[in-house]
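Sample 1 of the test manifest.
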Amino acid sequence: MIAILILLQMLSSPVTDSNVIFSQEAVTKKFENPRDIDKEKKAYNFIHRAEFTHISAPYILQTTEHEITMTYAPGIELSELIENADMELLNRAVRKTALGFSELHTKTNAYKTKVAHSYNVPGIKQQPAVIHGDPHPGNLFYDEATDKLIFIDLIDMTPSLQRHIGGPLARDAVYARNYIKLQAEYSGRKKADVEKIMEIFDNHYTFPIHENAREYYNFLFYAELKHLRNV
Ligand SMILES: Nc1ncnc2c1ncn2[C@@H]1O[C@H](COP(=O)(O)OP(=O)(O)OP(=O)(O)O)[C@@H](O)[C@H]1O
Ligand SMILES: [Mg+2]
């Protein structure tokens, strides 16, 4: 079990140069590169400004050159729920995860407030869409009290230039779905229960993904996983 969680973590992020300190009131995340602090801070502020209905995030309390101190994410980490929650709660968490990613990927007004980087490419009509970028269940919390999906670890959150059906949005959604599936399988969930949560995800993630893109990102996901198993 620990091995698969480590694999999931490794697969999730190309670079992780941070570590996290938990105190009673707050969480402090350390960064080697101050530019990453700026990226993450802008992404957190974006989530709060964009008036999402399904998504929220912790609040940043303080930053220094190498640290961000933020509030605790409310609720329970999705990875914890996948392993231990009863099916009723897990179903709700997965439903909200799909709704949350749908909202992030489709809510056009959200983009106007801009995330970390904003591109202005002449001749390309900029389409509104934002991706989480590292959508594994250790970076997602489900808050039952508010029925919201809570995003953390937003260092890879970026705008996507086009909302075409095979681009970064598709990667975000396919990876989020596959992480949930894989962890549920490795947690010993029954086959029928894994199928049920996948059905819930598919019924609530509404952005259209081209079948070729789905196949491509599925292939990449499992290829990366296989590679990690062999290193
Ligand atoms: N605000 C928070 N509230 C609760 N838990 C948190 C918070 N921030 C971080 N954590 C916990 O610490 C872990 C690591 O934090 P985070 O994901 O931000 O760092 P990371 O090292 O970049 O992770 P990754 O391995 O995904 O690259 C999270 O998976 C979560 O369990
Ligand atoms: Mg993380």
